[in-house]
Amino acid sequence: MNSTHMTMIACTLFGVCHLLGACHHPRALYEDAPRPPIEVGREYENNRRYARAEAAYQQIDDIVSRNMTLDQLAAAWDSTNATITRAQRLVSAAPQKASARFILAQACYQKALLCTRYTRESQGNYPRDYVFGEQDHFYSQALQQSKIAIRLDPTLTDARLLIAKIYLASSLYDQAFKELKRLIVSHPKYARGYYALGKMYLETGQYDKVRRYLVRSIKLDPDFLDAYYLLGQYFLDIRWYDYAAKTFLEILRRKPADSPSFDMLLKASYELGKFYVEQGAYDQGILLFQAILKVYSSHEIHQSLLHAKTLLNEATQHAESDDGLGDSLPQQNSPSQEEPPLPSAEGSE
């Protein structure tokens, strides 16, 4: 082949390439078609990237399908996904902000707790193995985000407390105790750290260590009613009924409707009141019922109050034959000179 032929071939190829280039064929002809937004969103959702899933679902053209899909995402897992979605958006907007990381950690922790509840109560519409997988993932994520938050802000005590809660929920008791003790050493004025330690000791049956931490918590924060409640529960557990009653009455006097332990307080106080009535200590039961009714309206408790008053009147009318009314309450497991349950000069370890 001579040089003339070579030149002709080269020119021909150049012309073809130039022609093809001039046609400007869209690259889309040679690429995969765009995936539907719902498909993209499902993939993000399956990978627990809920904020990105939400953004993808918002691109769905049909408004009915769009709203339904977004509602399903928000409502999933008792709406914990919606909380995580908002937290993920915060982290995406400010990845170096400790508070954003902590909010995400809390959201992940709440979903992990929900998974734990599902596994214990056999609730929900999810396969059991899948629920266990979600539980482990979100405990891990909560732990990771808490540690990032602490790295960004070492003074963020709530994040360190959350780490201890995660260890406790995962049955890693030694690590939980170590984390809490490290917390109160580095932040000796943090009332909730002492409360958390007292609560852990109570839950693990180490009663000799419970009281000092709860009292210390109350001394640091006299308005921390959850610590008062737990102290009362501690007295119930060791059968110091009068001290439990005094503690519950003190909380009820403060009208603790906003306290997280409010419902448990009402239940414990009511049960203790019924116990007093059953034992013939009607005055004690009446005091508890009246205190409850000042902060919470209940037909059942009101009827119990009326019944206790009736029994007291009957006992009073037959006082001669019922000498020693109220002495039938079981004796407390403590000497009479024991100090009252409310904060004293007692310190902490």
From TrEMBL:
SUPFAM superfamilies found in the cross-reference section: TPR-like
Keyword Nucleotide-binding recorded: no
Biased amino acid composition, Low complexity: 328-337
Repeat region (TPR), residues: 191-224, 225-258
InterPro entries recorded: CellSynth/LPSAsmb/PSIAsmb, TPR-like_helical_dom_sf, TPR_2, TPR_rpt
Region (Disordered): 317-349
The entry's keywords: Repeat, TPR repeat
UniProt entry tagged with the keyword Repeat: yes
Pfam families membership: TPR_2
Domain of life: Bacteria
Protein name (database record): Uncharacterized protein
